[in-house]
């Protein structure tokens, strides 16, 4: 229906407003950042960079507090155009991540040209690490490559202590998934930041 553009912009605006509130609420929160998915249709909007710049200025949010996540398939539809758009976004000071990395699109030849900060390993590879399948080898390959390109790596879909321990063994510094916490509302995260709520991840012992 095309409404993804309006919904996506609302989502981005609300996320920026919320992280601005959290950062202002306490000096302990000053370095908090937020990651927001950017849809393919949003990424193609000709006025996207100007709109993001205006939004950050309006709510007085430091650009480095925002990280935009774009899927690998989106940037590989037109890699040359994607490079230009990513560079424009990067010029604002906003950080950039490639989401669902490794899901069947050959972006390796362009990876060094993208002004990225983070690669996010797709959850499908993490979920197959338990049985020592292809996911383990892909994770083992992506991590040193990203390090050589000076990129952070986030493992998506971490759900078990076995996955967590393997990722630690591979020196993966960041992860997200149900192992750490179920999704929380804004109020829930506010309580978490205040110390009124404990992490809701799995509690497992060997």
Describe the fold and architecture.
The protein has helices spanning 4-25, 40-43, 48-59, 72-76, 79-91, 108-111, 123-127, 134-148, 161-169, 186-194, and strands at residues 34-37, 66-71, 95-101, 118-121, 152-155, 174-175. The chain is globular and about 50 Å long. The longest helix is centred in the first third of the chain and has 22 residues, at 4-25. It has ten helices and six strands; from the N terminus they run H-E-H-H-E-H-H-E-H-E-H-H-E-H-E-H. Strand 3, helix 6 (108-111) and strand 4 (118-121) form a beta-alpha-beta unit. With 206 residues, it is α/β, with parallel strands linked by helices. Strands 1-2-3-4-5-6 form a six-stranded parallel β-sheet.
Could you write a compact summary of the structure shown?
The chain has 206 residues and is an alpha/beta fold. It has ten helices and six strands.
Helix content: 40-55%
Would you identify the regions where 5 or more consecutive residues have pLDDT less than 50? 202-206
Number of strands: 6
Characterize the biggest β-sheet. 6 strands, parallel
Distance between the termini: 49 Å
* Number of DSSP helical runs: 10
Strand content: 5-15%
Oligomer: single chain
Q: What is the spatial order of strands in the main beta sheet?
A: 1-2-3-4-5-6
Derived from helix and strand composition plus strand pairing, the structural class reads: alpha/beta
Q: What is the H-and-E element order?
A: HEHHEHHEHEHHEHEH
- In round numbers, the mean pLDDT is 88
Task: Spell out the blueprint of helices and strands.
Elements: H1 4-25, E1 34-37, H2 40-43, H3 48-59, E2 66-71, H4 72-76, H5 79-91, E3 95-101, H6 108-111, E4 118-121, H7 123-127, H8 134-148, E5 152-155, H9 161-169, E6 174-175, H10 186-194
Parallel strand pairs: 1-2, 2-3, 3-4, 4-5, 5-6
